[in-house]
């Protein structure tokens, strides 16, 4: 099982569509963690599980989305309502309340993955305005034999190996 995860595209259209097209044969779904700045029903957003960011004004976007893939509960939010730029504590609380094992978020534009209390927190960074990285990034989540692995990529498809993170779920 693989999922494409992106965030903070801030008005980009061809790049959002390109990512989905590039990986459509290998993923079972795509996630956008907010701040697309596109209408909810924009053609580029079709097929994405998507949430509202602080720069998304279409009220059709939910604040939080939950899905289960291969018995793996996943939570998606932008993060601005949970103070993710300073701490993941509020997001941890939400993850515990929703019983999520994977949490996908954005907002900070910083590509990172953290394992906290046996949960995997994934921020794919930004494909428009990256911070703490010279390159725009997105990521891919794979899940097999109870092991979740997140790998990060630049927009030209080059893997950023130092950001890779794995966690085993019992």
TrEMBL record:
<dbReference type="InterPro" id="IPR024654">
    <property type="entry name" value="Calcineurin-like_PHP_lpxH"/>
</dbReference>
<dbReference type="Pfam" id="PF12850">
    <property type="entry name" value="Metallophos_2"/>
</dbReference>
<dbReference type="InterPro" id="IPR000979">
    <property type="entry name" value="Phosphodiesterase_MJ0936/Vps29"/>
</dbReference>
<dbReference type="InterPro" id="IPR029052">
    <property type="entry name" value="Metallo-depent_PP-like"/>
</dbReference>
<dbReference type="GO" id="GO:0046872">
    <property type="term" value="F:metal ion binding"/>
</dbReference>
<protein>
    <recommendedName>
        <fullName>Phosphoesterase</fullName>
        <ecNumber>3.1.4.-</ecNumber>
    </recommendedName>
</protein>
<dbReference type="GO" id="GO:0016787">
    <property type="term" value="F:hydrolase activity"/>
</dbReference>
<feature type="domain" description="Calcineurin-like phosphoesterase">
    <location>
        <begin position="1"/>
        <end position="145"/>
    </location>
</feature>
<comment type="similarity">
    <text>Belongs to the metallophosphoesterase superfamily. YfcE family.</text>
</comment>
<keyword id="KW-0479">Metal-binding</keyword>
């Amino acid at each position: 099982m693989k999922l494409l995860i992106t965030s903070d595209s801030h008005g980009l259209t061809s790049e959002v569509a390109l990512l989905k097209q590039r990986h459509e044969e290998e993923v079972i779904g795509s996630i956008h963690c907010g701040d697309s700045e596109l209408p909810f029903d924009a053609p580029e957003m079709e097929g994405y599980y998507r949430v509202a960011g602080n720069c998304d004004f279409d009220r059709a976007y939910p604040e939080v989305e939950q899905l289960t893939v291969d018995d793996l509960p996943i939570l998606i939010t932008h993060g601005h309502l949970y103070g993710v730029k300073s701490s993941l504590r509020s997001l941890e609380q939400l993850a515990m309340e929703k019983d999520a094992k994977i949490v996908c978020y954005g907002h900070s534009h910083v590509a990172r993955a953290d394992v906290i209390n046996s949960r995997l927190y994934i921020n794919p960074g930004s494909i428009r305005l990256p911070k703490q990285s010279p390159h725009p990034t997105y990521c891919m989540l794979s899940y097999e034999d109870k092991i979740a692995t997140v790998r990060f990529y630049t927009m030209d498809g080059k893997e950023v190996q130092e950001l890779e993170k794995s966690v085993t779920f019992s």
